[in-house]
Amino acid sequence: MPTAYNEITGRSIERLAALSDGIFAVAMTLLVLDLHVPASEVIHGQGDLWRTLAGAVPQFISYVMSFMTLGIFWNGQQAQLNSFTRSDRHLSWIHIAFLFAVSIMPFSTRLLAGFIAYRSVLIVYWGNILLLGLVLYGSWRYAIRAGLLRENVTRDRQCAVERRILVAQGLYAFGACLCLFNTYVSIGFIILVQPNFALGLRLPYLSEV
């Protein structure tokens, strides 16, 4: 019986990880391109320099938040890839969809930096994060159903991965809702909870994540 193409394509975890590392590296590098050194012709003194730097604060805040966000999702994806015994065509395309969401993060970041006081822009930015979380969660659920996990991945570990994604998305959603009051409050909340996921600080209010 002929071998189906779907049975031989998209099976390499190593190739998928390499592609992911490349996309993440490019996306994280593109973020910094929106940070510009003040033009010398408009700087005529220390006061002008400080005023120009103050005007760049929204760009810097957006950069830090997005860089941390991509770092968090890179770690999340790596945790999944390290748990897979192999890939298949469907799982590969799920992760390519995830990388699509990664690749548009520089755009949503630039939009936020340019219109940081607009609620609709913050909702678009959050939508980018939501897409990242949904696809990553879908990847994990598919891998479980398809039997692609390593034997040492226990049920407790499966639940831990799912819980981390769901809790993180819940916090991002709550942070996005805060834009109804003020976009800076919303952004401040998101930045406040990011160290728990990025650095494993185990903040008291998230000790079980």
Key descriptive features of the protein:
single chain, 209 residues, mainly alpha, 8 helices, 70% helix, disordered C terminus
Q: Helix count?
A: 8
Return Rg in Å: 20 Å
Which oligomerization state do the chains in this entry correspond to? single chain
Enumerate the spans where pLDDT stays under 50 for 5 or more consecutive residues. Answer: 203-209
Provide the β-strand percentage band. Answer: under 5%
What is the domain total for the residues? 1
Overview of the structural elements:
It is a single chain. This protein is an all-alpha fold and 209 residues long. It has one domain. It contains eight helices and no strands. The protein has helices at 13-32, 46-55, 57-81, 89-103, 105-114, 119-145, 155-177, 183-199. α3 (57-81) runs parallel beside α6. It is elongated, with a radius of gyration of 20 Å. The relative contact order is 0.12. The model is unreliable at 203-209 (pLDDT under 50).
Quick structural overview:
The protein has 209 residues and is an all-alpha fold.
Write the layout of secondary structure elements.
Layout: H1 13-32, H2 46-55, H3 57-81, H4 89-103, H5 105-114, H6 119-145, H7 155-177, H8 183-199
Helix pairs in contact: 1-3, 1-4, 1-5, 3-5, 3-6, 3-8, 4-6, 5-6, 6-7, 7-8
